Amino acid sequence: MRIGDEYFDRFFTDGYVLVPDFLQKEELERCRQEVLRYFPTGEEMSAQPERFTTLRKSAGFPFAGPTLNHVATHPDIIDFVERVLGTPDIRLGDSILQAKYGPDLSPSKDQRLHNDAWGRNTLVPPRSDGAFGRVVGIVYYTDVHADHAPTHVVHRKHSEDVPLLSTTGYSAYDPAEFPQLYAAQEPVTAAAGSLLLFTGRTVHRGSALHAPGAHRFAHFVNYHSTASGWLDTQTWSGSPASPNGPAVREFMESATPRQRSLLGFPAPGDPYWTEDILGRTAELYPGMDLAPYAGA
Question: pTM for the whole thing?
Fold first, then answer.
């Protein structure tokens, strides 16, 4: 297991924890190659800026390439999230790649401190306890130094009494109203392949990339339990991301039943599975091993 007890304990004590070398060297290299399908390096942008004037600096699940999809559904992350939320019934909320570049290439901005307990698609006030919590992760595919847009976090001891919603009715905190949070924030520097994990109520923010000509590639993921089924989940829209699109089909056929369940796919033994549904699923995903579902 790549996320041991020491990380679990610090996650609850501090509200966040950095897991160095979460990705093995070979995994990291494959991820980097797949990220380059979406974003240029800082060197490429500097050499030919006219090619990237309309560059989108984010991309969402599923990705063109198997490794990135399996990072978001990594069994060790699933183990950790199940342990934190106290239930095996969890879902993947977002899985988003993000690129940031130096101020001379494509300037980024400093965010305000905020928390992620408030889901974008929920109509009720947030809870952060037990199965109603949320686990957020950031996997870094490039080194993050002090001037390479580190995520800033606030230790739990400094934010325990801060409301999940500010007086504006949003999860962002005004520096004038919460100066103690900004005084307590700390940047998280990390080597490529590291995983930053934090709770949904952990106060944090993204920062601008200040190094000229540089780039930072990161993978943002979050998870919640089915007890919070009204929180934001994957939206299967658009040609490559539709259930019968090539990217989804490739991932679903290679995934384990546990990974599929993370996306809301019925688990083996679920009453949803009938002979008719099994047959139609085989037509939709011809390369999928349906034996676990048929046997149950």
Answer: 0.86
